[in-house]
Design a protein that fits this description.
With 141 residues, the protein is an alpha+beta fold. The protein has three helices and seven strands, in the order E-H-E-E-E-H-E-H-E-E. The protein starts with a strand and ends in a 6-residue tail after the last strand.
Length: 141
């Protein structure tokens, strides 16, 4: 499996985002529907495998930290795509000198406990405010 990490500049809503992010089960992202070609906020990267989009990483920086989102095509789950996205987002954050990555798994997420456990298995720590936080290796101290 050769995965490619491709920065979208500028990021726009497209059929692949609609398929992977927009069609995710209700309660996961809570994003509004967007028109094809509409600009989307934050920094987006897509993950391709043999020319097919199999996932996305998103990052928004605030005060030296980065909120992240990851989405994997259901057909590609269990093949390391999510871990690939987290590793690449951490590298992007380190390159910017950021301190922490954080993610909030919505209480309405149908697989909340499994996703929280998955992130904890990748070094994220649960905070009292509900965020899952990971120190960026190579970031500011």
């Amino acid at each position: 499996m050769a995965l490619e990490w491709i920065r979208e500049n500028p990021p726009r809503w497209d059929a692949d985002k609609a398929r992977i992010v927009g069609d995710a089960p209700e309660g996961i992202f809570g994003l509004p529907r967007r028109a094809e070609g509409e600009l989307v906020a934050g920094e987006w990267w897509r993950v391709e495998e043999d020319g097919r989009v199999v996932g996305y990483g998103w990052m928004d920086t605030v005060w030296g930290d980065a909120e992240i989102l990851l989405a994997v095509d259901p057909a590609a789950r269990g093949r390391g795509v999510g871990s690939f996205v987290v590793e690449r987002l951490e590298a992007e954050a380190a390159a910017r000198g950021l301190n922490y990555l954080y993610n909030v798994v919505r209480p309405t997420h149908p697989e909340r406990d499994a996703v929280v456990a998955w992130l904890e298995g990748r070094g994220f720590e649960r905070r009292r405010d509900g965020r899952l936080v990971k120190r960026v290796v190579g970031g500011k101290r």
